[in-house]
Amino acid sequence: MNDSAIARGELTTFAPTLVLLVLSVVINYVDRGNLALAAPLLKVEWGISASQLGILLSAFFWSYTALQFVMGSLVDRFSVNVVLTLGFLTWSLATAATGLVTGFTMLLLMRLILGVGESVMFPASSKILAQNLPEHSRGFANGVICAAMRWGSAAGTFGGGLLMAKYGWRATFIAIGLAGLLWLPAWMKWKPGVAAMLAYSDGGGIPSFAAILRQRSFWAASAGHLSGNYLFYFLISWLPFYLVHERHLSMASMAVTAGVLYSVDSLSAVMTGWITDRCIRGGGSPNFVRKVPMALGYSLAALSLGACALSGPRTYLPCLVAIGVGSGIANAGTFSFGQTLAGPRAAGRWVGLQNGIGNLSGIVGPALTGFLIDWTGHFGAPLAVAAGVAVMGGLSWTLGVRKLEEVDWATPQGLVGVHD
């Protein structure tokens, strides 16, 4: 049996779990992105400033980022299936409760609780992929999961935007939060079993936090992750506001335009993952094959962001589409790098740490964008900042990560700590 047939068999066996992981990421991003859609309505209804909106949009990341460092350890120590289930339940209930808030402080609290629940998603999914799939099949799986972030943003923008335009933001939050709970029974039935989850594990101890933090590749991957997240969160947090207030689109037109952009972004991520897997099965070096898309994607995103800052009414849409293509290509490998470098034993802990550092951009980025808009009156400066961050990301992934291969945790540089 050739490598392609083996890979198809591996993905077919894993397909129910992968579908549910993808669906959970879609729900995750629908729930976290709803506030950005409601921002124009909240600005009118509550009279809050762009700076206050920036604080609300970034508040999610305060708890989300802090808990990444905890969740990565939890999914390595305990049942990843149980930890993911509890996190999903928490964030769905927080979404529904957001529709009942009566003021700024209560809304801020719901965003913090939402961040606690959603913090489990990527440490858990990375642990599951590292334990169930080999290197030559992880590109597609990670590409689909990264695409699911965009599908969630697209679905939330298409559906949530239109629902808010018709029924208001409160009813939309309640309905979406409660509907998400339907995922839980399916997960309980099709979650991966213990035997399957040990397939690609060597059974060694869990590397310590100190051992991970000693790795140059960890810091390079974290810097690259931070850059990719800055771009992505800039899009999902401020794109609706940009289209409505900078480009003067209606709520309905904004929903369609932003949804198309997120869809282009997602298709780029899936195709990148699929192509890189095929190249690796054909004998290509994972180090070369995974890094090339990073260089191309971040370069395209940086150039397009700069062009968008200078664009007019007839040229901003092609620039946005190019940003989406670059973002999708660049982000397809974000989690696969960590899974490969850490290996199955430490994937949860490594990705939790990496995602925690990467999501510092979620704390700074949305708020910084709000302050820059208040200061300058338009989006030129925020777009220029995002372009500079994208350049840093491309350099981090391609030059900062010396070689994409599993760390030898038994050496003095990668000394294993037993379940610290």
How do you describe this structure in short?
The protein is mainly alpha-helical and 420 residues long.
Write a structural description.
82% of the residues lie in helices and 0% in strands. It has a single domain (3-414), classed as Growth Hormone, Chain: A. Helix 1 (3-46) runs parallel beside helix 3 (80-98), helix 3 (80-98) runs antiparallel to helix 4 and helix 13 runs antiparallel to helix 14 (316-331). 54% of the residues are buried. The longest helix has 44 residues, at 3-46. By secondary structure, the protein is an all-alpha fold. It is built from 17 helices and no strands.
Protein traits:
420 residues; mainly alpha; Growth Hormone, Chain: A; 17 helices; 82% helix; disordered C terminus
How many structural domains? 1
Beta-strand residue fraction: under 5%
Gyration radius over CA: 20 Å
CATH top level assignment: Mainly Alpha
The helix-strand sequence is HHHHHHHHHHHHHHHHH
DSSP, total strands: 0
- Number of helices, counting only DSSP H or I runs of 4 residues or more: 17
The major pleated sheet works out as: none
The CATH architecture assignment turns out to be Up-down Bundle
Within CATH, the superfamily carries the name MFS general substrate transporter like domains
Structural class: mainly alpha
Shape field: globular
Round the mean pLDDT to the nearest integer and report it: 84
Task: Return residue spans where pLDDT drops below 50 for at least 5 consecutive residues.
Answer: 416-420
CATH topology: Growth Hormone, Chain: A
Helix fraction bin: over 70%
Q: Termini distance?
A: 42 Å
